[in-house]
Fold this protein.
Amino acid sequence: MARMKFLCDADRCIECNACVTACKNEHDVPWGINRRRVVTINDGKPGERSVSMACMHCTDPPCAAVCPVNCFYQTADAVVLHSKEICIGCGYCFYACPFGAPQFPKLSNFGSRGKMDKCTYCAGGPDVDLSLKEYERYGSNRLAEGKLPLCAEMCSTKALLAGDSDMVADIYKQRVMVRGYGSGAWGWRTAYRETVTI
Amino acid sequence: MLVKRRGSARPDISAQALSGLASAAIDRRSFLARSGLAAAGLSTLGTLTLGAVQRAKAAGSSVSGPEVVIRKNICTHCSVGCTVTAEVVNGVWVGQEPSWESPLNRGTHCCKGASIREIVHGDRRLRYPMKLVGGQWQRISWNDAIDEIAAKTLAIREANGADSVYWLGSAKFTNEAAYLLRKFAAFWGTNSVDHQARICHSTTVAGVANTWGYGAQTNSYNDIRNAKTMIIMGGNPAEAHPVSLQHVLSGKELNKANLIVIDPRFTRTAAHATEYVRLRPGTDIPTIWGMLWHIFQNGWEDKQFIAERVYGMDAVRKEVEKWTPDEVERVTGIPGAQLKHVAELFATQRPSTLIWCMGATQHTVGTANVRAFCILCLATGNVGKPGTGANIFRGHTNVQGATDLGLDVTTLPLYYGLVEGAWKHWARVWDVEYDWLQARFDEVPAIAGRKARTRKENMETPGITSTRWFDAVNLPAEQIDQRTGLKAMMVFGHGGNTVTRIPQAVEGMKKLDLLVVADPHPTTFAALNARQDNTYLLPIATSLEMEGSRTASNRSLQWGEKIVDPVFESKDDYQVMYLLAEKYGFAEGLFKHIKVDNKSPQADDILREINRGGWSTGYCGQSPERLKAHMRNQSKFDLVTLRAPKDTPEVGGDYYGLPWPCWGKPEIRHPGTHILYNTNLHVKDGGSTFRARFGVERGGETLLAENSFSLGSELTDGYPEITFGIMKKLGWDADLTQDERDTITRIGGDNPDTVSWAIDLSGGIQRVCLDHGIMFYGNGKARANAWNLPDPVPVHREPIYTPRADLVGKYPTRPDERQFRIPNIGFSVQKSAIDRNIARDFPIVLTSGRIVEFEGGGEETRSNRWLAELQQDMFIEVNVQDAAERGIKDGQVVWVYGAENGARIKVKALVTERVGRGVAWMPFHFSGWYQGEDMRGFYPKGADPIVLGESANTVTSYGFDPVTGMQEPKATLCQIRTS
């Protein structure tokens, strides 16, 4: 079975924000809810790099680990989804997530923040695939239509890659081989420190 | 630490700005209501209208149900020409899909293209015609609006002449609308018809065309994949043309290419460069001459190319000798060793391409900058081959096409100029009497010692540039060289905040007798609170609601389908021009050979008329049928060569979009020209030579190519432009058909020998020449020395407002002169600024540019909630040291003071090393605040953009290019203080 992943090639990402508005457009995400955003490091200085961030659809998702009502589940394609029917808006997942993926319609330190919303990898939710109910709660379900997340499909420089992790890795490996270095991968240094020369 | 460009401070977006946003979201998807916020949801349900509910049901591409229709159009936000694939359900645009087949964008978009659906269906559009009555907006009907506007313009014409009405067109027009407005202005009787190219690449067009023949990008975005060295100078395509970076970065990776960014600002593009060079704003010519100094010194130039294909390089050598590394460093601030390295890369690691944008063009020396850039390409032999060239990135969907089709004060469509021959050519195409056209123009009396002009002379005199429309209102009558100054502005698809010196524009607006803004949005003109009455807003369809072709930067024409019918009461540009022409009494003549369906002129037919007259620039071969076939067969074209295999049905052998020039009649199936001036191809395969446009000889030196000719040419040396007379000498006239010969004889009258390839309506001369493998526009040399320009060889001239008073003596701006009917007193302004030591009070160089989320004047994009959310504040980038000296903290609100008009604007400070010390940068997309005042209340209710902000141009200053009237927003002075 496929294991769906995102990978942002920071050598290519130019912070054009196409991924952000493609997401908004596809799912009609309201003002203030940001399923995806672009983060820039060293803004305005040599070494400036941008990386597009959303739910990373972790293999062992910390959001699911802390959820008191168990609203998270992983699809057969390893996409991390949740049920808005079960979610109580407690916000624990927000604290657990290292990527800031969970979004809430209401800002509040106490009480419900409203149903959590996050990137669905364009895979809808637990409702019947391609139903109006699913669309209204989670946005469209491109995976069920045989398509990939629109953010990656529309990425201006093809920096943001989505798909089966093996294929994404292959594409990225080819790019690295052409370039002759691998530091473009976001997280490379964190993963390999200085032990791998680039 | 993670830092976002808009700073850490919470945006001060007002509740009013956001009005409707939350509820709109609920309308669309019942998002919040279904998210456990029932109370909040219910409280806004009152705003849910029936239409919105229906739309919510239609929304979402994945919802099964009604049939989804796919329609393709072109994104309007830059010139890359990204195909937009729209999903339409029941006449509502419900989703976008990636346009995988397009060889230009290959499925991708930037944030503007990825959210372009909102431009059409957003609720901030102007909904119906409105007029100002005592300072209040009132809704009126289309009939009343057209009646009143027509009556008023006719009365103004009667009293003040045809030249007193200004027709400002748009770079977002389709080719057909641009052509139609130019024709319309000719029928009205004025040459004061212009569009955004004036303020974006007018200097490029003038500089490039004067160098080698045609004013356009020589290669293409895709072809950049072939380059080994790329210099991007005065451009930030990562934000202005994001999809182009797909080609640039791929090229960089695949070829291990050098990507050098030369810019005063460390841009998002520079962040991906292999080398970044910081120069002082306004010193492009010294930088290029500094590179050429090393190139000539070390013999890195392409001697064979220069000998065969370039005229006047010796004059350049003489000027370049003055630019020793020391002097270059003194003037530009670029370290000598770095510039030598860059020069060596560009000259020796070929193919090399030079990419530029408005950082180069928007200067008093804009044309000279462009000329210097071209000369660098010529000296290193980097023109006319894959991976080389002047890759000029233009700014809107169709700014190239609108320029080509003559929304320009100096020419009729397709660069025929304004000479008698040009008028007669178009009169033949339009099937209208030349004498009738002439009679439409004003006679200009002798004023202030200037000669009077007859109607014929006035018809052949360039109009007033859009950069100076308000000067032509404000200046004393005797200084304006036409019957009277301007009395009425007719503005189609053009923001009011894109032109420098807004305080003076406000004065001009106050004095106008009539202002008409025809646009999907009210634009800045509505928000400046300059007027009480006689002001109309007409709701116009966006380009996405219109049929027609658009010319991308690489000269490819793409046919766009109407995605949905115009929303609300909007009408498209064709319809509005028809309605006005009807009132003016020339609809019949204007549309003589154009089908009009229920008062709606048909784009296909307009394009056919363009084809019938577009010989000069090769707009003759792109019939609507061929263009539509290209859109159907997008996937057949190669990513790098843009060519379809010869055996492909419908489009075999064509280059994508039949990039102009596409010669001859559509039936001869010329493939278009992917790379201009490429002699390694046969002319029938898109090969060509430099244009012999400026004669055959000068001062004893030939202007024709030597030992250089296009592949398979029967003439194996330089040759002049081809006329019927020359054809006869060559014996090729025998190849003409009887019909072609008859047409030529009819056009030529008594002297058919003078009929040239450009005015032969039969296309016979072009057809026969192509068969003989020759380029009928001649085989000339490119001109390093363009003797007809004010500076034949570019020389450095300091900006009008410069921090370097010490350099003005040696490098002054050009003397005062009359240009485009009014005075250009740049020299006096510069002298006064130096005399007053203005740099003491305004020590910071101010420059401007684009951000990725917004475009142009920004009304459309700031009204798009998905884009507005990303960039909610106008800001100024201030260098860390400049900020520290002034006690300015990041995110703080500051006043920026301009050097003229006592103007000031209130914006947020973004303290950053992105700009060098002594330089500040602002985006130019904002409006709706004016000198500290929020103008939201002056927009018609509900049509105010979500995000408002101060316009950078409120504090920009005087300065105009002598060749095109280009303004100077890229190098002026300012002061910044905490508020």
Summary: DSSP finds seven helices and six strands in chain A. Residues 37 and 53 of chain A are 5 Å apart (CA to CA). The longest strand of chain A covers residues 4-8.
